Amino acid sequence: MHAFHASELPYVFGMMDRTGQYWPKIPATTQETALSDAMLDYWTSFAKTGVPTAAHAPAWPAYGSGAAYMNITDAPHPSANVFPGMYVLHEEAVCRRRANGEMPWNWNAGLVSPKLPQGKCAQ
After folding, report:
1. How confident is the prediction along the chain (123 residues), in pLDDT tens digits per residue?
2. Rounded distance between C-alpha atoms, residue 28 and residue 102, angstroms
3. How many CA atoms lie within 13 A of 30 on its CB side?
4. What are the domain boundaries of the chain?
5. In this structure, are residues 33 and 75 in contact, taking their beta carbons and an 8 Å threshold?
């Protein structure tokens, strides 16, 4: 089963044994507990200090120019470039809308967004 919206919440809040009636039951294993502990530590640390850290887990890399992120699967794994170029269209659209000056620049890209103004932004 793939992750679904909000499926991380029992892990983040340390409530794996108290999921709702219709949620899949989380196995009570050492690996699942360690994953929950890491997620709880990362979120708490980030809320408190602005830096996500967790005991007995890898350092969370800053996104930066290397497009780093934390891939949380069976355990936290520092990784990079989850989807290379995934923000290119969005950044180009925002840049062109802002340069146009006559339309909201913060619209999402998609079927209902306004027509993108002509032009190209400097990279």
Report:
1. 567 888 899 999 999 999 988 888 999 999 999 999 999 999 999 999 999 999 999 999 998 888 899 999 999 999 998 888 777 877 888 888 888 888 887 777 677 777 778 877 765
2. 56
3. 0
4. 9-80, 87-123
5. no
Distance (Å, rounded) from C-alpha 47 to C-alpha 63? 17
Residues ≥6 apart with Cβ < 8 Å to 52: 42, 43, 45, 46, 60, 70
Give the residue from 68, 71, 16 showing the smallest Cα distance to 40: 16
Distances (CA, A) of 68 to 4, 24, 71, 105: 23, 31, 9, 26
Q: Which residue has the tokens 């340069």?
A: 99
